[in-house]
Amino acid sequence: MELSADHAWTTLREYGMRRLAHDSFVRFRYGDGMSHSRALAFQMCLSIIPGAIALVGLSSVTHQEQLGQVLQLSLSRLAPGEGGASVIDVLGGGSRRDALALWLGLATSLVSLTSTMAQVERGANRIYGMERDRPFPRKYGRAVILALTAGALMVTGFVAMVGGAAIGGALAQVWDWTDGQHLAFDVVRWPVGFLLALVSTSVLFRAAPRRRQPGHTWLAFGALVTLVLWTSFTLALALYTDRSGTFGSTYGPLTTVMALLLWAFLSSIALFLGLAFAAQLEAARAGEPGPALPDVGPSALEEREPLVGAVGAAGIAALRTAYGLLRRRRR
After folding, report:
1. Contact criterion met (CB below 8 Å) for 272 and 33
2. Are 88 and 76 in contact (CB under 8 A)?
3. Is 70 exceeded by the pLDDT of residue 228?
4. Is there a single domain that holds both residue 265 and residue 123?
5. Nearest to 57 by CA among 87, 98, 89, 28
6. pTM, whole model, 2 decimals?
């Protein structure tokens, strides 16, 4: 029987939202979620930066200047603080580069995007408790398909919701939209972006791990967690970079790069936390004992002894005993 949204909702009510959130974070932590988030963020940046430069440049080479202008204006409006001018300079320089170099940059971006999807599989497998990924051809073949389908649609949906205002302004400026067309875009981008992000994230959650996954509607619960966290992190980062008087002055021309690095890291955390939520929800229905294996490592005293020596460890133990006696006497 394939697990669906009805089973997920029943399990969620029985297990408790607070307990599930706590256990999901524990699963994320012991699945090395932070390390996988850092690796995923790095791959995302390697995809975005050369890809944006190549697309703007190729739009000029292929005589599609209006598309390049839309991308350039959108990114400059999304850049925090004074970073918009730096974005325009960098992207403008891309249009003056050799066509071969631009195509190579686009190819590099696609390779990095494929590695991004492969990193999602690796992180998902560890969160689900599996130590081995798919064999190389299957892993990267699937990563290419995911990058061109679910990955691209997920990014489109997220950007439509959070960056839609900047994109709409750029489209209106380049193609001379009327006020009615601009308003229609602002209204439509929210439901369309939400559905694109939710459905594509559910597909990614089902296709990435090396295991038989529940149905898409079950995984939509984890995808919704990712969507809520991603939106919250993005808006909080935008508010911080917009209101902070020191962020732009500290990093200067690198402000946009630093904001991109932070955004990619927070987005990766949101993705793997959503995966951990879906995994823990499934484990709760199966009656598994906990989100992590029991701790069989050395005690705190055993860990401390090599650091401070036997004499130091004995002294610390004596101090702890004396402190306990003093507390009992005061009572």
Report:
1. yes
2. yes
3. yes
4. yes
5. 98
6. 0.84
